[in-house]
Amino acid sequence: MSEAANDTVRLLWGPPAKPTRGPKPALTLERIAAAGVEVADAEGLAAVSMQKVAGLLDFTKMSLYRYVPGKAELIALMVESAVDEPPRPAEGTGWREQLTAWSGHLAESFARHPWLLDATVGPRVVGPKELTWLERVVAALDGHGLTGPERMDAAVLLAGHVRGIAAQSRAAGPAGSPEAEFRTVFGLVMQQHADRYPALAAALADPGGRDQALDFGLERILDGLAALIERRTGARA
Amino acid sequence: MSEAANDTVRLLWGPPAKPTRGPKPALTLERIAAAGVEVADAEGLAAVSMQKVAGLLDFTKMSLYRYVPGKAELIALMVESAVDEPPRPAEGTGWREQLTAWSGHLAESFARHPWLLDATVGPRVVGPKELTWLERVVAALDGHGLTGPERMDAAVLLAGHVRGIAAQSRAAGPAGSPEAEFRTVFGLVMQQHADRYPALAAALADPGGRDQALDFGLERILDGLAALIERRTGARA
DNA sequence: GAAAAACTGTGTCTGGCAGACACGGTTTGT
DNA sequence: ACAAACCGTGTCTGCCAGACACAGTTTTTC
Question: To the nearest 5 percent, what fractions of chain A are helix, strand and coil?
Answer without folding.
Answer: 65, 0, 35
